[in-house]
Amino acid sequence: MKEKTISLDKHKEIVDAYVNEYKEIIKAYEHEIEEYKKKNKQIKPKQIEPKKDTIKIRNRYTKDIIFESSNAKNIKEAVEEAVKLKIDLSKANLSYANLTEADLPRADLTEANLLKANLLYANLSKANLSGANLSNANLSYAKLSWADLSGANLSNADLSKANLSYADLFFCEMDKKVFKGIAEKWFKWKVK
After folding, report:
1. DSSP 8-state class, residue 173
2. What secondary structure does DSSP assign to 42-71, as a single string?
3. Nearest to residue 118, comparing CAs of 140, 98, 146?
4. Residues whose CB falls within 8 Å of the CB of residue 91, separated by 6 or more in sequence, listed in order
5. CA 23 to CA 168: how far, in whole Å?
């Protein structure tokens, strides 16, 4: 068999042809890359906002979420928002909640847990607090006129200067100190 021999010039010509072909391929890819970059500059990547913390109000017995707010900065604002939206907050767990000066007229807080809640200057007029646990709660200066407190636990609650006019206190659970304060202020009774 006879071997083919190629001249050096011919070999260089073949290599140059391959090099030119690869240069064209590279040029085409570079063009595609530039087009891709232009498109991606027009389409701005979606900014992923960090998830804002929400404030949740849970059922005191089942722990289910009754209301959730992403607008509120604190529990007071969340409860006020829920009341404005007429959300049923019965059986809500609001123990230890700072609800100072909260505006909660006509709130449905039936059987709510407000143990040691701070309700100083809160407006709870015409609120339903029947069966609610208000033991050790601070209700000083609270507006409780026309509120339904029937069956509520008011043991050790601070009701000093609270407005209880026309409030329903039927079957309330209270200690002697609370009873004495209510009896002397609202009924002008002398309790020993």
Report:
1. B
2. HSPPPP-PPPPP-EEEEBTTT--EEEEESS
3. 98
4. 59, 60, 61, 66, 110, 111, 112, 113
5. 92
Which DSSP string corresponds to 99-164?
-TT-B-TT-B-TT-B-TT-B-TT-B-TT-B-TT-B-TT-B-TT-B-TT-B-TT-B-TT-B-TT-B-
Q: Which residues contact 159 (CB under 8 A, 6 or more apart)?
A: 139, 140, 142, 178, 181, 182
Q: Does domain 53-192 have CATH number 2.160.20.80?
A: yes
Sorted by sequence, the CB contacts under 8 Å of residue 93 that are 6+ apart come out as: 57, 58, 59, 60, 63, 112, 113
Going by the DSSP 8-state scheme, the letter that residue 2 receives in this structure is P
How much is the pTM?
A: 0.70
Interval 92-125: pLDDT, tens? 999 999 999 999 999 999 999 999 999 999 999 9
Torsion sign across C-alpha atoms 147, 151, 152, 157: positive
The residue ranges of every structural domain in the chain are 53-192
Please give the Cα distance from 57 to 112 (Å, whole number): 11
pLDDT tens sequence across 9-38? 777 787 788 778 878 888 888 888 888 777
What H or E segment, with its residue span, contains residue 34?
helix 8-42
d(CA 41, CA 135): 62
